[in-house]
Amino acid sequence: MVRQTNEFRPDYAVAPGEVLGEELEVRGMTQQELAKRTGLTPKHIVSLVQAKSSITPETAIKLERALGMPAVYWLNLESQYQEALARIREEARLERDLGWLRRVPVSMMAKLGWIERTNDAKAQLVEVLRFFGIASVSQWNDLWPSLNVAYRQHNHHEIFPEAVSAWLRRGEIEASQMTCAPFDKALFREALDKIRSLTTERPEFFVPRLQTLCAAAGVAVVFVPALPKTGVSGATRWLSANKAIIQLSLRYRTDDHLWFTFFHEAGHILLHGKKELFLEGTNGLDAVKEAEANNFAEQELLPRAQLSDFVKQGQFGKATIVAFAKMVGISPGIVVGHLQHRQLLARSHCNDLKQTFRWDHE
Length: 362
Hints:
Layout: E1 2-3, H1 16-27, H2 31-38, H3 42-49, H4 57-67, H5 71-101, H6 106-111, E2 117-118, H7 121-132, H8 137-146, E3 148-151, H9 161-176, H10 185-196, H11 203-215, E4 219-223, E5 234-240, E6 243-248, H12 255-271, E7 276-280, H13 287-301, H14 304-313, H15 318-328, H16 332-341
Helix pairs in contact: 2-3, 4-5, 5-7, 10-11, 12-13, 12-16, 15-16
């Protein structure tokens, strides 16, 4: 649903000095006389009337005694004036930042329930800023480059950092709501052995079990739909020294990609530092660390010796794939994906052995 916004926003501000000048005119009092009555200098009175100086609490009290008008009246005028000026400046800044908003996938974010849709562009920008938890686009510019970003991009995909950061922000929000034990490397390593057996299960079973096992070891696992112009399949980063996050998008919708991505991200957690963001699906990645994470995922999913014997046989029909998958205790789809990746099996073959996924909103 689109929210209508018809709030009146004046593009002017009435200065307290203007009110003061009118009051003096009504009373027939000169600025020099007011200066004498308040003990303020004539120059200060001129500055107040011309809105070059603000009315302080001390000045408000002096005006109260000289004019019989409560100090709170003058302070309220000053407060309202300063707020009006701030809003005028804010409106101008929002106008300048609308170009940034066009690169944020607002429609999809609203469809997913992350933000509220509005028919006013500036109000929509404010809503998006609230989602990011920042005051202005300047803060987004400060935060995004400050991340030590490591990500892989396929050349035929156009990536918008604004969209990628929105996807990451949603994962951060969901992960922050998950209760996790302090990170325990040994416990997480132990959990991975149990998680491997979940590859044969349906998502309604494996998702909560996966999240529970990882949370007990200090890792929040969140599933967040990919946004347009992101091209991401997964991400790993540390929310704190004791809490890591693995974020998955189900980009390719099949179990081979999902589980390889998960174990790849798990490899980053176990093998690499806590200050980096690994964003799978885009560019700029550390080739060595990516190779290490890939190797970790392959070894976790497919025992090297048994895989080598299976490949040597050269028989990759459905029956042999299913039998091998059952023997090593993983989903047949993972075996199919591995063989396709190594070009031992055509991309069009045996895809019905893969488990496919869909989001609830689709």
